[in-house]
UniProtKB/TrEMBL annotation, chain A:
Transmembrane segments: none annotated. Keywords: Cell membrane, Cytochrome c-type biogenesis, Heme, Iron, Membrane, Metal-binding, Signal-anchor, Transmembrane, Transmembrane helix. The gene is ccmE. Gene3D superfamilies: Nucleic acid-binding proteins. GO terms for biological process: cytochrome complex assembly; protein-heme linkage. This is Cytochrome c-type biogenesis protein CcmE. Belongs to the CcmE/CycJ family. It comes from Rhodospira trueperi.
TrEMBL record, chain B:
It is a multi-pass membrane protein. This is Heme exporter protein C. Belongs to the CcmC/CycZ/HelC family. It comes from Rhodospira trueperi. Required for the export of heme to the periplasm for the biogenesis of c-type cytochromes. NCBIfam families: ccmC.
Amino acid sequence: MTRKKRRLYFVGLGMLALGGATALVLTAIGDNLLYFYSPTDLTEREVAPGQRFRLGGLVEEGSVEKDGETVRFVVTDLVHTIPVTFTGILPDLFREGQGVVTEGQLGPDGLFTAASVLAKHDENYMPPEVADSLKESGYWEEGLEGAEAAVRSTGGAEQTSH
Amino acid sequence: MHRYANPTRFLRIANAVLPWSTGVMVLAFAVGLSYALVFSPPDYQQSETVRIMYVHVPSAWMGLFVYTCMAIASGVALIWRHPVADLAARCSAPVGAVFTFICLVSGALWGKPMWGTWWVWDARLTSMLVLLFLYLGYMALAGAFDDRQRGAKAAAVLALVGWVNIPIIKFSVDWWNTLHQPASVNPVGESGIAIDGSMLIPLFAMAIAFKAYYVTTLLLGIRREIAAAKVRSLRLAEVQG
């Protein structure tokens, strides 16, 4: 009986210690686990010129300009924006108002030259008819919230909500 | 004799449950697959590609659920030396590994057309790959010792230690920027359920089918392991006698 209890406490304490250690490690390396930076993140951190990194956010409405193979658009997290240029094939889901993750480098003029563009979609799924009726009835805001969640990061989208 | 009391009782329960779990599995697969492939609508953005979700998401849930079951069974085996618990953990590992693998493969097949890439090293995808390695490591460790008891002990410790990865997988999309979108079905979170009702039918039916499959294979697996243990002890008695 006491042996079982001792094993129980041992396993319980071990799990607690392990959980605590993991939490500490994850907090310590937190920023390195970010897959991309939002435009707001970039205002808060130094990025060396020519350093490759990933920039994520929404493609701003009305910002896409196509010129042959090259496309220019603006990435926004609804607080800050960064202009992006990219030459190549865009994913099917690339469109205005949609999430996007680009990899490349920031030029001295503030223009981000992307070497790759990935589409990032939100967690909402619905049939086309439902999406249409939502848009008609003006309840599409919920969809926008989902889009905000797509760029939810270190407070970019939260600042707009109040 | 006392050691066999529990397995005997377990076998009685397992044999009573098996026809039911098999029935639920067949029924849920019939409903789930027909809705997933035919009767559910396309998505407003992803059109027909969304049907991958009905395999991908329930597989991911299975990967996390089976691992949690395996960790609990390992803890029970470690603390109370319950022989059936050890068998339950051993029989869970291959099931969880297969569903984690299905999740990763279907996710890659879905990621290419939608995101534009098969794979990225973001927090969600990477932690899910770690889960697959944990399953494989558990299976390797559990079978690596000549003495089954020692193998069981080492593997149980690995299963418990590896469980810290489960909350990391679950919350990776909330804690860090990831290419993978946040959870669509999150009853406790602020987002709630972000999937239209017509798409939830195949999703939940497939999830039920997968769970029933797990129950069925788990019971069959433990039954097989108990029979194998009996054969081993009979052989031993023969040699010694």
